[in-house]
Amino acid sequence: MTYAAEKLINLADYPIHIPGPARDAVLARVRGALAQDGCAVIKKFLTPAGIAALTAEADSVAEQGHRSFNRTNAYFTQDDPSLPQDDPRRQFYDRSNAFIPADNFVADAPLRSVYDFPGFDEFIRECLQEEAFYRYADPLADVIVNMAEEGNGFPWHFDTNNFTVTLAIQNAESGGAFEYAPGIREGDENFAEVARVLAGTSDRVKVLELEPGDLQLFRGRYSLHRVAPLRGARRRYVAIFSYVQEPGMVGAPERTMQLYGRTLPIHHQRAGQRNDAYID
Ligand SMILES: O=C(O)CCC(=O)C(=O)O
Ligand SMILES: [Fe+2]
Question: Which InterPro entries does its entry note (predicted)?
């Protein structure tokens, strides 16, 4: 069975493949939101049929998810005992989730039908106004599903990537709000305000309740953010589309092993040829 992307993507509201005023209006709104606070949401980017098809696909490969656990601070750095105990760099949180590797999402199935839809990449590029913009060439990581269960979440952090492109597929029964402090470390690290966010006393935190089918573009390098802990039996599924600034990039073998539980020959062939892209 093949899936026509036209039935999965809400092209009536978002004609991303047709140059013209309707597409320009979507671009203008997304760019405005990104300029304002580094975050843009395209509500109901998927049709109801699209949500159903991507959910069924994620369910069908969920057993292939690779779970990983670690303790991390907001900066993904090691502990530094020379700093005061209450410094934000010394606040460590549990992180656990599972990534379903990209090679479980085969051509012509729903998720890749969206990703491969002619004009999708270019639309994303124009939203972000990035010049150097290539799909991640990693067959385990170009498009994945992040699967999380009760108790999981993604604790407060700054991203190492310039931007993240995610598509909400299924929410947990409750919890899982996307919380972020726009631009909190623009200019300087602003540790005092970061500490208030971690303590739950900052008034700079915005809360987004993303719904299945919503597409999110987020610049997380300067905006501290988290996914609040999940509750209930239902899994949360989010697809992550990855783009990088150079063609041909794949993940480093150790990092790939950690995130996906296996590597492919390409990870070893290309190791050390160029800087690695750490998509996380
Ligand atoms: O799962 C999400 O909605 C976003 C997670 C996140 O912040 C990240 O992958 O860096
Ligand atoms: Fe993030």
Answer: BesD/HalB-like (IPR056470), Oxoglu/Fe-dep_dioxygenase_dom (IPR005123)
Determine the pLDDT at residue 1: 45
ipTM of the complex: 0.96
Q: Is residue 191 part of a domain?
A: yes
Residue 280 in domain = no
73 lines ligand 1 (CB under 6 A): no
Task: Name the closest-CA residue to atom 10, ligand 1.
Answer: 159
Residue 182 is part of a domain; what is its CATH number? 2.60.120.620
| Domain, as residue range, for 229 | 38-103+131-269
The tens digit of pLDDT for each residue in 180-193 reads 999 999 889 999 99
Measured from the alpha carbon of residue 228, the closest ligand is 1
What confidence score (pLDDT) does residue 203 get? 97
Which ligand 1 atom minimizes the distance to the CA of 240? 9
pLDDT at 278 exceeding the cut of 90: no
Helix (H, G, I), strand (E, B) or coil at 157: strand
Residue 161 CA neighbour count, 13 Å, CB half: 19
Distance from the CA of 21 to the center of ligand 1, in angstroms?
31
Torsion over CA: 123, 11, 30, 44 (sign): negative
Q: Enter the tokens of residue 188.
A: 């300087």
- For residue 152, pLDDT over 90 is answered with no
Q: Is residue 58 part of a domain?
A: yes
Give the residue, by CA position, lying nearest to ligand 1 atom 1.
Answer: 238
Pick the closest to residue 163 from 196, 114, 130, 212 (CA basis).
130
User: Does residue 18 sit within a domain?
Assistant: no
